[in-house]
Amino acid sequence: MDGIGEVPSVYMPSKEVRQWRETILHRKKIITKIVQVKNRIRATLKSQGYSKPLEKGSWWKKSNRLWMRNICQQNIGVCDLWYMHVSNLLDEFELLESQLKRVTVYLDGYLAKNPGGKLLMSIPGVGPRTAEAVLAYTDDVTRFGNYKQYCSYFGLTPKLDESGLCRRLGHISKRGPSVVRWVICESSWMAIRKSKGLKAFYERVRCGQDGRKKIAIVAVARKLLGIMRAMLLTGELFNEGLVNDAIRQAA
Fold this sequence. Notes:
251 residues; mainly alpha; 2 domains; two-stranded antiparallel sheet; 10 helices; 2 strands
């Protein structure tokens, strides 16, 4: 192929899969906007002396939202336009919440039709958001020849720096879909709490050093991806015993 100057073929997912990916990204963008609006509301209230909500707990529980609404009902004067600002932000927050709920319901329904969803969610700490992101961007798992190619596609393999006789592994490449790296790392924190094997692997990589926590959790994320790839190829549910044996043998 290279000898006659042809361009190497590139994998192209179907239109349905591309739209699935876009919907996943759309949900993530809504969450980002919600976080931004929440921060702006709290910052504005704190600038006016409201350092904490009326009731203990989350700023966003029903009673505290009502409290914020009541604050905004006060008469707006020339120097009190922040009332209107907070009121508008609360409106935006509620609109974004309704959008998030609608998109989440759609994605949950779509995932329920995919047999891989139940498979991946059998892994401790892996929920629907992680399962759908991995499945959508994996699409056809057989296109990845091995575990390293799979992890490299998601940008979780270290970059190689070579100069002369010096060969050093650097930070992860962060290539590929960032949304998958985000959810897989979040799931890794949950997985080490629920899986003894993955917890042991995490502790072994961490070596008792707090400064190595991020390195260890990325290693767990790679391990999770390897487990997911194997499960998608075999169709078998998560088996804690097999994971423990594999990690013990690698030690």
